[in-house]
Write a structure and sequence with these properties.
By secondary structure, the protein is mostly helical. The protein has eight helices and no strands. It has helices at 2-25, 41-56, 67-80, 82-85, 117-126, 142-153, 160-165, 181-189.
Length: 190
């Protein structure tokens, strides 16, 4: 009886492993950014992400949450983050909704203002697998990372001067193309 139970259990485990392997190897598992998520994908990914962040035990911000920090963070954010995460009072960037999961819009709704800065810091330093969020560990200084994290943690309460820093640059005015010298000479000869 025990042998039969053990054999049945092993066959069940092998069938489960084989089925999971077939699901991925046959191309049935979603792979494109526009595909719907796999069963339990979001729940398991978030559980793993939260466990990594908690395990990292990131220290509290090394800089204060004040106007000077927010302005400095706005400059860094505008250059490195706005392309995916957007700017205040602007339409979402074209790329934001074409990523899976969608890039969080930091200045719409809650954004990440309900996340502690330590959590945003961990994500900015390490990136988040399979989301498009890169690691900025070797791109930004530790101070710049904390400035951006303080900014996004307080995005719902930033001042007008910080919003002004986040205002996109106006597009350069286009000038009509001057006729080429060869065309100008040809038209004079006619």
């Amino acid at each position: 009886m025990v042998k039969g139970f053990v054999a049945g259990f092993l066959v069940g485990v092998l069938l489960l492993v084989g089925g999971v392997y077939y699901y991925f190897a046959s191309g049935m598992a979603p792979a494109a950014a526009g595909d719907p998520p796999m069963p339990f994908e979001e729940k398991l990914a978030n559980k793993s992400l939260n466990a990594h962040i908690n395990k990292a035990n990131v220290p509290p911000p090394a800089i204060p949450a004040n106007e000077e920090t927010f302005v400095a963070g706005a400059k860094v954010y505008k250059e490195h983050c706005a392309g995916c995460h957007g700017l205040p009072d602007q339409p979402p960037p074209a790329i934001a909704n074409h990523m899976y999961p969608h890039a969080t819009l930091m200045f719409r709704g809650r954004g990440v203002t309900d996340d502690p800065p330590e959590e945003s810091y961990w994500k900015a330093v390490n990136g988040v697998r399979l989301t498009g969020m890169p690691s900025f560990k070797n791109v930004l200084t530790d101070t710049q990372l904390w400035q951006v994290c303080q900014l996004v943690a307080h995005a719902s309460e930033i001042s007008d001067s910080v919003k002004k820093e986040l205002t996109p640059e106006p597009a350069p005015a286009t000038q009509p193309l001057a006729p080429s010298p060869a065309r100008a000479v040809a038209s004079k000869q006619e």
